[in-house]
Design a protein that fits this description.
By secondary structure, the chain is an alpha/beta fold. Helices cover 32% and strands 26% of the residues. The protein has helices at residues 28-43, 58-61, 73-80, 95-98, 102-111, 135-145, 164-173, 176-183, 199-203, 288-309; strands spanning 2-4, 16-20, 47-53, 87-91, 116-122, 148-152, 156-157, 160-161, 188-194, 208-210, 222-230, 233-242, 254-259, 270-280.
């Protein structure tokens, strides 16, 4: 898969099929769209392109007051590399771009730049200045300019329409099983292990602390059964999200992961934490010994969980 951020008149010499959208999360609805795009492009000898943005459009449209993200661009790229997509095009969404009329977007971007013959969009896709263009406008334009439009209907799970907004809501509530069903995979956070206060190590439960990308949505405070990737290894783990009230007098937020049966020093290394199941809310215990007993109980519950799966 080719990843690009700049184009010229010769970038897309072959006719293309284009998937249009922001694709935050690459949830099961997004993947239905992208898989349709790839399949249709293969049987019609088109070059498959996902056209999306380097930054969420709301950073411009709402002057920075945007929803936190489910995936970074790096995560999107890694996930799409697992498909047979030909090109992933990240376009910068700026003030000038936001003012393109629907017809200017179709003529300047879809036709002149992308050499389009097929557009694949979600049922609620909007484009152009103030979102004045919709799927019906796109269909009429396709008939006028000679490209086909496929509209992917809503994807539902237990009567709920899958959307990035709904997934963010469940992440913030710590309902990770529901997130899994809507995303089609476990929600994860990437980060570099940073120096903490090393209190966990003195308690006998050393932790790897990360600071995820500031634009990412964060699960509700609490203790989670997690799976942590370091290098090529997936390691069973438990993760505390929050302020660890028993250990800290000040409200200092952290994401701290204890890797089960793993004691290598991974300070400064990159890890990925997949959130599987919330065990409990954060709680301030009467003393350190009470906290240690609770951590042991949390670890035993996590071990029982993994034992069932293995």
């Amino acid at each position: 898969m080719r990843v690009i951020t700049q184009v010229d008149k010769d970038t897309f010499q072959k006719h293309t099929g284009v998937g249009l959208g922001n694709f935050d999360g690459l949830h099961i609805g997004h993947m239905a769209l992208i898989n349709t795009l790839i399949s249709e492009c293969k049987i019609n000898d088109l070059h498959s392109v996902v056209y999306t943005f380097t930054k969420h459009p709301e950073t411009i449209l709402r002057k920075g007051l945007m929803n936190q993200l489910i995936t970074t661009n790096e995560q999107k790229t890694r996930l799409l590399e697992e498909t047979t997509l030909d090109t992933l095009y990240y376009k910068e969404f700026d003030e000038a771009f936001s003012r393109l009329s629907p017809d200017e977007f179709i003529k300047n971007v879809l036709i002149d730049t992308l050499n389009i013959r097929l557009a694949v969009v979600g049922f609620n896709y909007r484009f152009g200045y103030l979102g004045k263009g919709d799927v019906e406008y796109l269909k009429r334009s396709g008939e006028k300019y000679g490209f086909r439009v496929i509209v992917i209907p809503p994807v539902k799970v237990k009567s709920e329409i899958v959307s990035s907004t709904l997934i963010r809501e469940y992440i913030r509530k710590g309902k990770m099983e529901r997130v899994f069903h809507l995303l089609g995979r476990h929600f994860s956070l990437y980060g570099t292990v940073v120096a903490g206060r090393r209190i966990g190590r003195t308690l006998g439960f050393p932790t790897a602390n990360i600071m995820p990308h500031p634009t990412m949505v964060i699960p509700a405070n609490g203790v989670y059964i997690t799976k942590t990737k370091y290098g090529d290894k997936w390691i069973n783990s438990i993760t505390n999200v929050g302020v660890a009230p028993t250990l800290r007098e000040e409200s200092s937020f952290s994401i701290e992961t204890h890797l089960l049966d793993y004691d290598e020093d991974i300070y400064g290394k990159d890890i990925e934490i997949c959130f599987i199941h919330k065990l409990r809310d954060e709680k301030k215990y009467e003393n350190i010994e009470a906290l240690k007993r609770q951590v042991v109980e949390d670890i035993n519950k996590a071990r029982s969980y993994w034992k069932i799966l293995n």
